[in-house]
Amino acid sequence: MEGLLNEHHEAREAFTVKKEEPTLVPPEKETPKGLYFLSNLDQNIAVIVKTVYCYRAVEEKSEIKQALAKVLVDFYPFSGRLTISSEGKLIVDCTGEGALFVEAVAECEIEKLGDISQPDPSTLEKLVYDVPGAKNILEIPPLVAQVTRFKGGGFVLGLGVNHCMCDGLSAMEFVNSWAETARGLPLSLPPFLDRGLLKARPQPKIEFPHHEFAEIEDLSNLSLLYQNEGIIYQPFYFDPKKQTQLKKSVMKETPTLKNFTTFECLAALVWRARTKALQMKPNQQTKLLFAVDGRSKFDPPLPKGYFGNAIVLTYCLCNTEELTEKPLKLAVEMVHNAIQLVNDNYMRSAIDFFEVTRARPSLTATLLITAWNRLDFQSTNFGWGDPFQSGPVTLPADEVVLFLSDKKQEKGINVLLGLPATAMKTFQDLMQI
C-alpha cells in the first residue's frame, strides 16, 4: 500500500498544467431571464461533480467553445448563477452570464495520465478548473469547462457541474447534446426544462418513514479511522462472467426466489465487504443508500429529456452483526426490497418530507452507491472520435462508491471506492468470489 501511495506521489510531482485566464461563454442567442425553479430532489445534492474526457485527436478549441455557446441556448439554466430563494432554497437566477471556460496546456504527453479507472485525484484535479477564492457553491458557476492540450497531441475536457442542476442521466444528455452540436447535428433529445412537475404538494403528505435521512451514532470511530490513515482508491472489475458467478452463488442460497439483478447482488456484496473491512462494531447500525431513477416510476412518467434530478434515494438499514454474520442473500433481499419500495407515492412522500423537514441524508456508518455504469459517457464524440477513457476525478465523499462502465467490455462494471489503507487489504480479500 505504501508503495502505491509513493508511486502516486511521484506522478503528481511531475505533472504540471498551465491555465490561461478563464472566459465566460454565454448562449449565442437571447435566452429567458428570471428565476428558475429547482425541485426538492435537486436541493440535497448541491456538490460539484468533476469528470474528465480524454481524446487522442488534435483539439480545436474554437469548435468546442462555439458549440458550447450554441447548446447553452437550449440548456440556458447552465448560463445562470445559483442563489437562495425567499423560501431559503437553491434556485437559479437566469442571468445569461454563461459557463466558465478555461484553456490550459499540460507540459507532458497524454499517456502520463495513465489509467484513470484508478483515479489519482491530485493529478486529475489539475484538469478541472477550481474557481479561486470561492467560499461556497453560490460563488461557482453551475458549469465550468477546461480544455487541456498535451504535448504531441491529445486533449482532455474537464467538467465541473453542480449536481443540483442535473443527475447523471441529465448530465450525460447535456454533454452528448454539446457533442452533437459540435458535429453540426441537431439535438437528438432536446431538454425538457420545467421542473415544476416535481413541486411539493400544497398539503405535504408523508406516507413513509424515510430512514434514508436517519442519523446514526458512530460507535465504531469510523471518522477517526479515515482521518488517521491515507485513503487508497482502487477499482474492482466485474466482467460478465464474474457477475454471473456472483448471481449464481446468491441463487444457490435462495433457489425458490426469482432471479436477482446484477446491481442487487453487487450492491449487497460491496456493502457487506466494506462493513467488514472497516471492522464496524456488531451493534453499530449501518445504512446503504442508493439512487433509483424515478423517470419511469412517476405517475405519469416524466417527459423524455427531463433536465434535472429525477433520482430518489432509497435505503437499507440494519445492525452490522445482522449484515455480516448472516448469508449474503439476506443483504441482497434488503437491496431488492429497497428498490421495490420506490413508486410514485414514495417519491412524492420524499419530496414532501424535505419540504417539511429540510433534512439532509446522514452519511455516518453509511455506504452511498452511485451507479454510472448505465450512463453512456464513453461515446461523447465532439468530432474527434470517442474518448479513449473518461471518468470521475475523485469520489465526492469517503462514503461513496461508484459503479462505472468499462470501455473494453460493454457489460463490465468497475466498482471504484476509497478506503483507509488497512481496510483496503481486507476488502480486496472479501471481494474474491
UniProtKB/TrEMBL annotation:
Belongs to the plant acyltransferase family. The keyword Transferase applies. It comes from the Eukaryota. This is Omega-hydroxypalmitate O-feruloyl transferase. Gene3D superfamilies: Chloramphenicol acetyltransferase-like domain. PANTHER family: FATTY ALCOHOL:CAFFEOYL-COA ACYLTRANSFERASE, TRICHOTHECENE 3-O-ACETYLTRANSFERASE. Keywords: Acyltransferase, Transferase. GO terms for molecular function: acyltransferase activity, transferring groups other than amino-acyl groups. InterPro entries: CAT-like_dom_sf, Plant_Fungal_Acyltransferase.
